[in-house]
Amino acid sequence: MNMKNILIISGHTDLAASVANKTILETLNERLPEAEIVKLDELYPDFKIDVEAEQQKLLRADIIVLQFPVFWYSAPSLLERWMEETFRHGFSHGSTGDKLKGKKLVLSFTTGAPEAMYSREGAMGYTIDEFLPCYKATCRLCQMEFSGYVYTGGVSYGNRTSPELIEQQKSVSEKHALRLIELLEKISHR
Amino acid sequence: MNMKNILIISGHTDLAASVANKTILETLNERLPEAEIVKLDELYPDFKIDVEAEQQKLLRADIIVLQFPVFWYSAPSLLERWMEETFRHGFSHGSTGDKLKGKKLVLSFTTGAPEAMYSREGAMGYTIDEFLPCYKATCRLCQMEFSGYVYTGGVSYGNRTSPELIEQQKSVSEKHALRLIELLEKISHR
């Protein structure tokens, strides 16, 4: 099956300490070797983004996947920095900025809290979708297509107190990666 | 009038290049000299947050103001980093983390795009309130009270092409600061 060019941006600030995000990326690397995976924490531990290099990666991509753990109901600071620096006026937006036009954006994210907490009645007071307008508005301004998300909750640091629990987090993370690949295959043919 | 202890965290990544946020902070400094103003871009140009120092500032405060320009419909990366690092499990949240309990959180932010664009029918497709669930959920998790926001739109970099336009941005920014002080006085007595 011919997939479009896929760029996966990992926004975790410390992948070495991660289970879920690390497992998702490893699974994607095995199952989707043609995708380009960018690990921001390896490239930019000092938060100094190489704007030109990152813009070139975006230009090559048909589908852009943002892979991140949700920190304080938002993307990690490092991913925000990547976006602030790379999505520049005249490149991604503004009257002459149309370099991302027509590209598809997919979110792939995890939360420490279980999915059930994300509801009006739950501990968070909001559904997970209510935290996504910023990405959808970004797509709108940059003329990208918001092409959905894959989400896994309940993969917290605090819940890794035994080898069994770590294995369980790895297992749901592998399934997450397979769900993401399924979505990518579907939108590759639209 | 006795105001409670107010901590103002400036999240702009480059205040020297700012008009609106700089003017707001200067006005607050003049009119509200008892408030503690923290400029993250001066303290942490390398994004390396002094967690202990920042937690001490939070402990002293009754009211915490986050002052920032909206970048990509979110807080700037530097403010996100401050929050990721400072709001730690066992300090701000978790079964033994109640150090922010009862404190009030106020948002004070600006957007480059005019306020009218922030509507369901407008260019952004969302109201400004639809971008705020992350702050409200943060308050909920940290047992803080979300105490409202002061907002000014239309203060973009692109719209500073003449001395008159810069003066206009300064003027709305001063008014913004006065509206913020009014809100702070009101919630100081609740």
From TrEMBL, chains A, B:
Coiled coil: none annotated. One of its GO terms (molecular function) is FMN binding. It comes from the Bacteria. InterPro entries: Flavodoxin_fold (IPR003680), Flavoprotein-like_sf (IPR029039), KefG/KefF (IPR046980). Residues 4-171 form the Flavodoxin-like fold domain. Its EC number is 1.6.99.-. Keywords: Oxidoreductase. This is General stress protein 14. It comes from Rikenella microfusus. The lineage of its organism: Bacteria, Pseudomonadati, Bacteroidota, Bacteroidia, Bacteroidales.
